[in-house]
Design brief:
By secondary structure, the chain is of the alpha+beta class. It has one domain: HIT-like (HIT family, subunit A, 2-Layer Sandwich), CATH 3.30.428. It contains 2 helices and 5 strands. The protein has a 5-stranded antiparallel β-sheet with strand order 1-2-3-5-4, covered by helices on one side. A hairpin with a 7-residue loop joins strand 2 (25-29) and strand 3. It binds adenosine monophosphate and zinc ion. Zinc ion binds at residues 1, 4, 6-7, 46, 98.
Amino acid sequence: MKNCIFCKIAKGETSAEVIYKDDKFIAFKDVNPKAPIHFLIIPKKHIPSVNHLKTRDKKLIGELFLVAQKIARKQGVAKSGYKLVFNVGKGGGQLINHLHLHLLGGWTSPTHHPTIKERDIPGMP
Ligand code: AMP
Ligand code: ZN
């Protein structure tokens, strides 16, 4: 898709800190990270958002989650845990209209986590 920044990254026309690529996907560091580890995983194929997925994309989306799992393992957050997030549409906070899965993690303690406080964790005083 012309004028799509993530298509340009996928084609190597715009630079990004690429951490993973294969024939269908590419993952790179978010330029404005919201967590100690923040990657974006995108299909090379231009799909604007989750709202635009078709039945024919079923396999691709399944594979996208397996890529996320692989990246989490390689980047050392599989055990500590991480978040996978799709923002969908304007109201969902989606700014770039090329499907992307946010992988966020690397918080060193529960109190650094944006949504979990120690008091929410069973067993903690
Ligand atoms: P979203 O709000 O879900 O559309 O997320 C878009 C994300 O893309 C934001 O977290 C941005 O910081 C990130 N972003 C925008 N442009 C770039 C870029 N050229 N390289 C890396 N990340 C980007
Ligand atoms: Zn695109």
